[in-house]
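Input structure tokens:
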């Protein structure tokens, strides 16, 4: 069987337990990915693909050709495809084959919703409709995507799953480590720290948080972790808004546990999501959350119950929600406790049997 994704990092971050499960079931497992090549545990072979983020890039069609040849050579019984770009070009590679593998497409978040400009939405939806006949099982992670997949018949069978499961054990951190990090970062004793870990991109919308910060009291600080093409622009905007010293840019973090532990709250400004790990991790870590009211977020956060929501792109509303948290320790404690209790349903040990059960359902007898 074959796993495909736009980047190796996606497979490494989200799917290693499933690669291992397939091998333990006796499968030969291959992975085909774009991005920086990497060794992938629990695979018997990999194929480097020249995926580019721009959908119409000739390299993406070249990647589809490489996949088609590989599929014909190997005679795969099953393909599990992930990320919108790789999922489309993987299924494009299958079109016209006399015999094709069974295909499971796991949707980590369609890149369109009701707020997407009409032309862009039509193009992205048309791509999914074109690939739908090659999709035996479609797994969606939020209710908007599930409804859209059913409405437009984007797969022969559409199933909702609660993500791929999060290994929360890696977030367990003692208070001493959190205190040491605050000292290392020179956080004032009365500092109230907001934390957001995400790629710097238009979709993640860090600019909204910076404009909200300009309205917030001096005691409130913001940590924007991650890398990406828009990081320099965000750093420049922080300087222009007079936020130097109040906004930290630590780059990509390998050990996020102590950062969650040292933060007073977690915040997100994303435009669109599937079922975001950073919010689930914040819930488990017992951190109150302020997030944009978009699909994916609204599946995890009940406003005023497990977090606070604000309209996407509204820096003023975002700032008001942060002030509510900052001013009320009882509200922070209440939201954190309720979010932590709700996080259990997204734990890997709870989700793993549901996902592997869907994979197993594609075959009439044990393999």
């Amino acid at each position: 069987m074959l796993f495909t994704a736009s980047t190796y990092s996606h497979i490494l971050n989200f799917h290693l337990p499933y690669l291992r499960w397939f091998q333990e079931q006796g499968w030969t497992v291959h992975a085909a990915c774009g991005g920086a090549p990497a060794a992938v545990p629990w695979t018997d072979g990999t194929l480097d693909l020249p995926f580019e983020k721009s959908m119409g890039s000739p390299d993406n069609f070249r990647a589809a050709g490489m996949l088609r040849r590989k599929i014909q050579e190997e005679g795969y019984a099953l393909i599990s495809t992930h990320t919108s770009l790789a999922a489309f070009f993987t299924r494009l590679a299958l079109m016209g084959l006399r015999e094709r593998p069974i295909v499971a497409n796991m949707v980590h978040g369609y890149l369109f919703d009701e707020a997407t400009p009409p032309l862009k939405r039509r193009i992205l939806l048309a791509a999914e409709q074109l690939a739908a006949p090659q999709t035996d099982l479609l797994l969606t992670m939020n209710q908007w995507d599930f409804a859209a997949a059913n409405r437009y018949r984007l797969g022969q069978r559409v199933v909702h799953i609660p993500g791929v499961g999060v290994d929360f054990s890696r977030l367990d951190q003692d208070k001493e480590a959190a205190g040491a990090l605050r000292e290392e970062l020179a956080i004032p004793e009365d500092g109230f720290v907001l934390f957001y870990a995400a790629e710097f991109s238009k979709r993640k919308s860090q600019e909204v948080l910076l404009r909200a910060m300009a309205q917030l009291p001096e005691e409130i600080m913001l940590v924007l972790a991650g890398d990406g093409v828009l990081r320099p622009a965000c750093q420049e905007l922080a300087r222009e808004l007079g936020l130097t010293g109040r906004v930290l840019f630590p780059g990509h973090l390998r050990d996020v546990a102590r950062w969650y532990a040292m933060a007073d709250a977690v915040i997100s400004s994303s435009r669109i999501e599937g079922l975001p790990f950073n919010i689930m991790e914040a819930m488990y870590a017992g951190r109150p959350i302020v997030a944009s009211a978009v699909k994916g977020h609204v599946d995890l956060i009940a406003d005023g119950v497990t977090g606070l929501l604000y309209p996407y792109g509204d820096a003023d509303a975002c700032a008001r929600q942060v002030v509510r948290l900052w001013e009320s320790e009882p509200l922070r404690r209440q939201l954190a406790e309720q979010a932590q209790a709700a996080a259990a349903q997204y734990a890997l040990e709870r989700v793993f049997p549901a996902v592997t059960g869907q994979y197993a359902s594609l075959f009439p007898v044990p393999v």
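Residues 126 and 132 are 10 Å apart (CA to CA). The chain is about 40% helix and 15% strand.
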